[in-house]
Design a protein that fits this description.
Blueprint (H helix, E strand, L loop, with lengths): L2 H11 L4 E5 L12 E7 L8 H11 L10 E7 L1 H7 L4
Parallel strand pairs: 2-3
Antiparallel strand pairs: 1-2
Helix pairs in contact: 1-2
Length: 89
Amino acid sequence: MDTADVERLIEEGIEDAEATVTKPRVPDEDHEDAHFAAVVISPAFEGVPLVQQHQMVYDALEGHMTTDIHAMEMKTYTPEAYEEHGPDA
């Protein structure tokens, strides 16, 4: 699974989502290419607690967290929060 596949799953699984997925670290021998980092922006996060926002992303990944993805770092934002705080918030 590559970053484009992960982005597609997130964007298809969360309404009006924009996902940017990268590989945040050098792959290790045991889990090569299985570590990802995502910034996800969606109005669907409005009024939703952070833990539930992250669960929405996991749900969008349709079980790949137990097969193709070893680790996922993520930041989730509403469009307004992203505009106000940017990716470093």
